[in-house]
Amino acid sequence: MMKKRFSSFTVAALVMVSLFAGMEINELISGDDIFAQLNKFKDILILTEKNYIEKVDTGELTEAAISGLLDKLDPHSVYIAPRNFERVTEEFKGKYEGIGISFRILNDTITVLEPIGGGPSARLGILANDRIVKIDNQSAVGFNETQVQKSLRGPRGTRVTVTIVRPGTPDPLVYEITRDEISLASLDAAFMVTDDVAYIQSNKFNEQTYNEMTKSLEELRKQGMKKLILDLRWNPGGYLDQAVKVADLFLDGGTKEQPKKIVYTKARRTEFDETFLARSGDAYENLPIIVLISNHSASASEIVAGAIQDWDRGLIVGETSFGKGLVQRQWPLADGSALRLTIAKYYTPSGRLIQRDYTGKNKAEYQLEAYERDEEEGYNENHTINGRVDSTKPIFKTHAGRTVYGGGGITPDYVVKDNVLTKTVADIRRRDLFVAFISHYMAGQGLKVREEYGKDLPRFRKSFKVSDQLLAEFTAFVESKGVSVDREDLRKDDDFVRAMIKATIGRSIWNSDAWVSILLETDKQFQKALTLFPEAEKFARLQ
What we know:
About 35% of the residues lie in helices and about 20% in strands. By secondary structure, it is of the alpha+beta class.
């Protein structure tokens, strides 16, 4: 996870160490040794630039040296090149300036997936599946993603003209759009799934997450929320302080004698040691809650899940999380790049270090390890294996005395494995052919679907069925794109394929809430979680 504070303190020295030293960080104060290493690197760089058989790019060599050094530290200390820094900053700040659309390049044409709610494109009436063929009266056909972003993004208040071809409309449509600040939402969806159960899906923890969460919770409470499923699957984390604030929404402050920790950090430098405590007073401290996690849930997601679990506040459902318990701080550098360096480890309230061991593993091996666990499905209140404690991991106790483990992510209280797709369907999804097909479909037969269901998403969810004929058309489309289709694979994943087709149509007509709500209907982990609220309430009563 990331600490938000930025500082210029020792930036130059840190960069020099990262570039050239290849030594332990605790040698930072050893100036003579550092400068000896700097001089060595300088000599090698000069000799290479002057004498190498081919002309070299010294900037490229320097960046390679940085990456090489950071590979010797831990998997999460990284160098961010200038060309990537703006995009990474936008993701964490949760906003950028532009026209406000999500898009794909389909058949060399910019295709609108969804206008971002409240943005300038949405306000002007630009729709999903619109094709942008010109930007400022110049052809945009054949643009790559970088060219699109360069053309459509720009300072707030500036204007850009786009020419759109809309299926079902005979003539091109010209829009003059005034760019504005666009929020990159960290919540993909927030809606009621039953009369009293609410669902929130979070994709990251950026600067806006806490504000988005509190706003959504308040709206859901007005709609009758009595229980909550918080979906942190596929959430890779983000800012530490945002994770603390979100966890605090569901935890009371404890007592003066025993205040409730949410998370604490330990570092080599004591100024990086911090303890974060819950405070009482939020409206959701007794709300029955289930947190969904997967092996893609990391960092800030694990802080939230770990605090809920350690205080026996609710039920954790899904698969064991990634296992990232390191805290990074980011130092911006003079050339527009940045150094993101691990400065501390974080621990859950019970004292668990969630970080997996990365000793002797390259980054690829370390990443893959998280997705290859063999877990037994079912209720696992005390986290035993066939009734026995796992002696290979450090053992900790929750507030109620249940056994939990450190050193390898958050293990759910109820393990439910995600469905594994067949090779054919995995290939189809990987190549984004669901989106490509529905883009084609919505330009023809899909116009009637849009007309029939209008703004009535509940009726669409209840009544619209993916017919065998539509499935056959999809299969033919996939084969036309060069994918070898195994009919038995399609049969095995029939529910998923039909749900993806329907959800993609739904997003094309409405928004991401439609997409998510339709996919949840065949989501094994979510459907199980819906049945587990009696257990979640039992956990909460243990406090």
